[in-house]
Backbone:
């Protein structure tokens, strides 16, 4: 790296933070079964301890996304949860309502034809907004499993209109510092017509909801042929990109560690963000979050892998020479324009990462340091004992 590149990469790292998900530290499974790890978190205290450990090692994960149904007990004071998070060196981040697990959601939540179910779902979101206000969370993160599996099953337009009405009411209840993120997914569990199937649907719904509603892009929620960085560029230009859920995929929502399949795609996404910032003179406000559930990789190790990869690719994307890129684009110089991106992608940014970690008194290698501490071994022994005492034959809740 040149001295100028080193400075640019370090400056980028200073601005970059990634939110870890509470559910990423707990036992999870597939539709065929649930698979257990001895060191997996049993309860929210474990999840926050694991998240705090990751933040202590990486220095860029100060907040933890929570799922209301999985992480808050009925009647529990949200401020007590916020205090528990602070005890472990982190803060509560995005609040995720659960609009897919209750039996009443068989035919959908906001899209359901039954007004009573829609009211139930809306009240859960209103309660989630109140939790967010209590813990000073900026984001209400909404994902819906709603949709239909057969042609003619329901009116697509009716379901769209129900979503518009419910999202407007959610937006009306937001506090002045809260932002509502609307996520999309092309399929699963609905396979004929998912109610919010792509970024255009999410964009229209967010705009109709109100000015503090934005689109959330999950990097796994796309068909293989889709150009995610083009979606990102459009949303940036419309001031509608609110956040990301980071993971990688070979097919669809595979929940793989970031960059394990296509690191160049993640780099290209980050490039669009840096390119936008160079043109506008400011970085856009974006919530960078992880959404992964690992059955095979150890939970904490997978999280560290994703965080470190995100830092590396974000730093690489900051090295693109935007002035040179603009000149090449103006001349339709396709070869040089492509090479400008590739040269940045193939630049070794490890000196910048090392310097940034040293300056912030962090371990040079977060994954190696995690293994050296023996944290996972200690957690596994403690949690195996507690599961036995609690009468949990294997694992805990889904998340």
Residues:
């Amino acid at each position: 790296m040149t001295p100028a590149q080193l400075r640019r990469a370090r400056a980028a790292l200073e601005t970059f933070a990634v939110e870890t998900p509470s559910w990423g530290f707990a036992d999870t499974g597939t539709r065929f079964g649930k698979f257990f790890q001895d060191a997996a978190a049993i309860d929210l205290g474990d999840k926050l301890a694991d998240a705090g450990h990751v933040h202590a090692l990486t220095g860029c994960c100060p907040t933890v996304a929570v799922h209301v149904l999985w992480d808050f007990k009925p009647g529990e004071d949200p401020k007590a949860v916020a205090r528990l998070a602070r005890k472990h060196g982190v803060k509560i981040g995005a609040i995720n309502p659960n609009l897919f697990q209750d039996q009443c959601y068989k035919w959908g939540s906001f899209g359901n034809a039954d007004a009573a179910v829609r009211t139930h779902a809306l009240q859960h979101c209103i309660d989630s907004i109140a939790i967010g206000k209590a813990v000073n969370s900026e984001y209400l993160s909404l994902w819906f499993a709603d949709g239909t599996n057969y042609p003619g099953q329901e009116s697509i337009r009716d379901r769209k209109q129900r979503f518009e009405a419910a999202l407007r009411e959610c937006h009306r209840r937001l506090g002045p510092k809260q932002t509502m993120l609307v996520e999309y997914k092309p399929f699963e569990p609905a396979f004929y017509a998912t109610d919010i199937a792509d970024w255009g649907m999410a964009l229209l719904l967010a705009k109709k909801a109100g000015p503090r509603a934005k689109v959330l892009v999950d990097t796994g929620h796309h068909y293989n042929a889709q150009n995610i960085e083009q979606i990102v560029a459009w949303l940036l230009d419309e001031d509608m990109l609110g956040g990301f859920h980071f993971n990688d995929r070979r097919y669809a929502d595979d929940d793989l560690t970031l960059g394990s399949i296509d690191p160049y795609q993640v780099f290209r996404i980050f490039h669009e963000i840096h390119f936008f910032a160079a043109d506008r003179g400011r970085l856009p406000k974006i919530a960078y979050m992880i959404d992964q559930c690992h059955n095979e990789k150890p939970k904490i190790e997978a999280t560290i892998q994703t965080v470190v990869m995100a830092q590396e690719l974000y730093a690489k994307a900051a090295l693109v020479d935007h002035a040179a890129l603009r000149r090449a684009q103006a001349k339709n110089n396709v070869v040089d324009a492509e090479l400008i991106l590739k040269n940045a992608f193939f630049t070794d940014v490890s000196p910048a990462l090392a310097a940034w970690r040293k300056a912030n008194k962090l371990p040079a290698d977060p994954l190696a340091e995690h293994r050296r501490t023996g944290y996972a071994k200690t957690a596994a022994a403690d949690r195996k004992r507690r599961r036995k005492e609690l009468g949990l034959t294997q694992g805990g809740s889904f998340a």
The chain has a mean pLDDT of 96. Residues 273 and 337 are 17 Å apart (CA to CA). The longest helix spans residues 115-134. The two ends are 42 Å apart (CA to CA).
